[in-house]
Amino acid sequence: MVNSVIDCIVLAAAVYSCLYLVAAVVIASGEYRFQNNNLPKTLPSVTIIVCARNEKNTIRRCIESLLELDYPHDKLEILLVDDEIVISMRLEEILTSMGYDVAGVAASGREAIEMAIDRHPDLILMDIVMPGELDGIDAAAKIRSEIDIPVIFITGHAKNRLIERAKQVSPFGYILKPFQEDQIKVAIEIALHKRKMEKQLQKAYHELEGRVKERTSDLEKSNEELRRQIAERQVVEEKLRERERELKNKTNALNETNIALEVMLKKRERDKLKMQKDVLSNVKQLIEPYLKKLKRSQMDHIQESYLHILDSNLKEITSPFIRTLSSELLNLTPTEIKVANLVKHGNTTKEIAEITNSTKWAVDFHRNSIRKKLGIRNKKLNLGTYLLTIT
Fold first, then answer.
1. Is residue 11 part of a domain?
2. Which of 179, 206, 232 is the last residue of a domain?
3. Alpha helices in the chain (DSSP H)
4. In angstroms, rounded to a whole number, what is the distance separating the alpha carbons of residues 117 and 112?
5. Is residue 357 domain-resident?
6. What is the pLDDT confidence band of residue 106, given thresholds at 50, 70 and 90?
7. How far apart are CA 389 and CA 326, in angstroms?
């Protein structure tokens, strides 16, 4: 927009050939300040400025300089509240001389509230004792609570009760009448500085509060995510514990099954061994003695053949049992195994000698050898009973 205005003015000025050019500029906003003392301090809505030299660039720079003039700083507005006209006029004179604008003059607490709400001044100089239902303290409290405008009390009263009431509304100053101009100036500057610091503090507080809320929101999201993860982990842990219980139960069941199988296998081995011993014992006791007697009797050739076949078949049947018994009896000789088996079944030395077709001395020799190999020599243990315990 500015560039379009400048281009139009430059184009119009270029038409004229003169020493000085006149540029008309429409300024839409308020007033501008100029450093040249020959120019007026303020400019109305339409201003004419003279620029030297008939040069296009010079004209452009003049117009750009005009458009870049600084705005004046807004003057601070102060509302006066006092029911004494003389004091109000004095205060207005002092404030004007200090460069402040008087937003208005109120003579009662009610009027002060209405003017403050309507005009929003930067500061209020408030008398305390005024006519009407609201005094200055009541009016200040109302204004501070609704629109938060700082108040300086100017009063001729210094009673403790009044001061204590004034403290409740947190005034920015308390000036006693009669006052001096310097008192007013210092009080206003301190109040405005305090107000500035208060706004900065409020701004910092709100920014901090915003960051705290943002951080709190982030923390809440993080906590929610953590709670979700913890819940998921608890579910997984519960499933793992359940799986662990199942595995433990299965392990216990397998252990019980293994124990039962071991018991059954041991019982089967014992039963098998007992059966083998019973078979071997029956053969030794019930068959072999009679076979040996038959061998010593007179038989024809055919009978001897049958007897030999019968003896061979019995040995073939009982040989596995004899090997098992031999391994249990610690590498005894075949003869010692026969003697041990007969001793275990309660045969006496004489009976064993007859069965094995040997002498009593030979049987006693084998018995001593068996006791020695079993480690029970010179011990008061019955050989037959001991053999029953280990086989």
1. yes
2. 179
3. 2-15, 56-67, 85-97, 109-119, 136-146, 160-167, 181-282, 288-296, 301-328, 334-344, 349-356, 360-374, 383-390
4. 9
5. yes
6. very high
7. 15
Q: How many residues are listed for the chain in this entry?
A: 391
pLDDT tens digits along 227-283: 999 999 999 999 999 999 999 999 999 999 999 998 998 888 888 777 877 777 777
Same domain, 52 and 105: no
pTM above 0.85, yes or no: no
Range of the domain at 36: 2-67
Q: Is residue 352 part of a domain?
A: yes
Is the confidence at residue 293, as pLDDT, over 90?
no
Report how many domains make up the chain.
3
Kindly tell me the burial class for residue 50, based on how many C-beta atoms sit within 10 Å of its own C-beta (0-12, 13-18, 19 or more): exposed
Q: Is residue 210 part of a domain?
A: no
CA torsion angle for 100, 104, 107, 110 (degrees, to 10)?
A: -120
The domain that holds 102 is classified in CATH as 3.40.50.2300
Same domain for 95 and 8? Answer: no
The pLDDT score that the predictor gives to residue 319 is: 66
319: buried, middle or exposed (CB in 10 Å: 19+, 13-18, 0-12)? exposed
* CA trace torsion 50, 52, 57, 63 (10° rounding): -20
Q: What pLDDT does residue 322 have?
A: 56
At 293, phi and psi to the nearest 5? -65, -40
Residue ranges in 75-124 assigned as alpha helix (H): 85-97, 109-119
In this predicted model, which residue has the larger pLDDT, 223 or 63? 223
Q: What residue has token string 């937003």?
A: 103
User: Residue 284: helix, strand or coil by DSSP?
Assistant: helix
pLDDT digits (tens, 9 = 90+) for 304-339: 777 777 877 777 776 665 555 544 554 678 888 888
Q: Do 153 and 177 form a contact (C-beta atoms < 8 A)?
A: no
In this structure, which amino acid lies at residue 199?
K
Which amino acid type is present at position 116? A
Cβ-defined contacts of 174-178 (< 8 Å, 24+) = 177/87
Place of tokens 């210094």: 158
Domain boundary among 35, 67, 99: 67
Is there a contact between 42 and 31 (Cβ–Cβ < 8 Å)?
Answer: yes
Same domain? 126 vs 24: no
pLDDT tens digits, 331-376 = 678 888 888 888 888 888 888 888 888 898 998 998 888 888 887 8
